[in-house]
Specification:
Blueprint (H helix, E strand, L loop, with lengths): L2 E5 L2 E4 L4 E8 L6 E8 L6 E6 L5 E3 L7 E6 L4 E6 L8 E9 L5 E3 L3 E6 L1
Parallel strand pairs: 2-11
Antiparallel strand pairs: 1-3, 3-8, 4-5, 4-9, 5-6, 7-8, 9-10, 9-11
C-alpha cells in the first residue's frame, strides 16, 4: 500500500506562487505515475498535472505555462510549482498515484490552497 502526504498549501494573494509537494512511501517510487488533482467548493475534482514514471509531463489547459510538475527520484517526492495564481485556483489539491499500466491508484489527504483577489 502506498502512502501519499501532501504539503505546501496555504493562503496567498493573486499573482503569488506556491510549491506543493507529495511525499510517496510504501512502494517503489518508479512504479507510479504521480498526478495532482484539485477540487473547488461545490465542484467536481479535476485534473491539474501529471508526471509519469518516465518523467513525461502533462497539464490541464488552465495550468499550462503557469505550473511545472517534477519528480525527485532520490527523495520519492513530486513537486508542483504553481505561479501567477488566480482566485479560481482555490481548492483542495490532492496527490494521486497510479501503478504504471494499471488502474490501481491511491489518493492523499489533500492540502488546501486559497488564493485571494
Amino acid at each position: 500500500q502506498v502512502q501519499l502526504v501532501e504539503s505546501g498549501g496555504g493562503l496567498v494573494q493573486a499573482g503569488d506562487s506556491l510549491r506543493l509537494s507529495c511525499a510517496v512511501s510504501g512502494r517503489t517510487f518508479s512504479d507510479y505515475d504521480i498526478g495532482w488533482f484539485r477540487q473547488a467548493p461545490g465542484k467536481e475534482r479535476e485534473f491539474v498535472a501529471e508526471v509519469r514514471w518516465s518523467s513525461t509531463t502533462s497539464y490541464a489547459d488552465s495550468m499550462k505555462g503557469r505550473s511545472t510538475i517534477s519528480r525527485d527520484n532520490t527523495k520519492n517526492t513530486v513537486h508542483l510549482q504553481m505561479n501567477t495564481l488566480k482566485p479560481e485556483d482555490t481548492g483542495i489539491y490532492y496527490c494521486h498515484a497510479r501503478i504504471v499500466g494499471t488502474s490501481v491508484s491511491s489518493w492523499g489527504q489533500g492540502t488546501q490552497v486559497t488564493v485571494s483577489s
